[in-house]
Design a protein that fits this description.
By secondary structure, this protein is of the alpha+beta class. Helix content is about 40%, strand content about 25%. Strands 1-2-3-4 form a 4-stranded antiparallel sheet. A hairpin with a 4-residue loop joins strand 5 and strand 6. The radius of gyration is 21 Å and the shape is elongated. It starts with 9 loop residues before the first strand and ends in a 7-residue tail after the last helix.
């Protein structure tokens, strides 16, 4: 099946070149871990808590940290099965997994200007400058499939500046009528 619409022109296609670890994937868990460790230490000294209560705190901490590692594993799966297509009208995400091929897309004219974060090895990640409320809303929907971006981004693509320029140039163009 061809994901392109009739009359739509493919400008670029690619896939993530590697897995990129990001601090924002772990900062919630690290913050909670620091609070739990500090809180348990403070409670232990102030209230003379015994070993079993502290063990409960550390079990909760271990569960939270294992959730962070699971999220990281999901993102790794995303890298393995995803391809990106940039057309003159849309940004298309293609996921070719065990259950078949699935397509998701975002119209270019609905995106903010692209932002490139270079990784120093010729690759970079392109995102679209989410506002704080958009980013916080995205954090609430992380239970969706890992490959399906709530806030679209092209992770670890080659020549990210050229791809971002293609997206910006075609996203600002008025839609064709006819």
């Amino acid at each position: 099946m061809n994901p392109l619409l009739e009359g739509e022109q493919l400008l670029w296609s690619g896939r993530p070149q590697r897995y990129v670890r990001r601090y924002r994937d772990f900062h919630n868990y690290l913050t909670i871990a620091i609070i739990l460790i500090g809180g348990s230490g403070l409670l232990a000294t102030r209230a003379n808590l015994d070993f079993w209560i502290l063990s409960g705190w550390y079990a909760v901490l271990a569960l939270l940290l294992s959730t962070a590692f699971e999220r990281n594993r999901d993102r790794r799966g995303f890298v393995a099965v995803t391809s990106y297509l940039v057309t003159d009208q849309r940004l298309i995400f293609v996921s070719a997994g065990e259950c078949g091929t699935e397509y998701r897309w975002v119209p270019l004219d609905g995106l903010r200007p692209p932002r490139v974060r270079a990784h120093g090895d010729g690759t970079g990640t392109i995102d679209f400058r989410p506002t704080v409320p958009e980013w916080l809303r995205d954090q609430g929907y992380r239970t969706r499939p890992a490959w399906q971006p709530a806030l679209p981004e092209l992770m670890a693509v080659r020549d990210p500046d050229r791809v971002a320029e293609l997206i910006a140039r075609n996203g600002s163009r008025p839609p064709a009528v006819g």
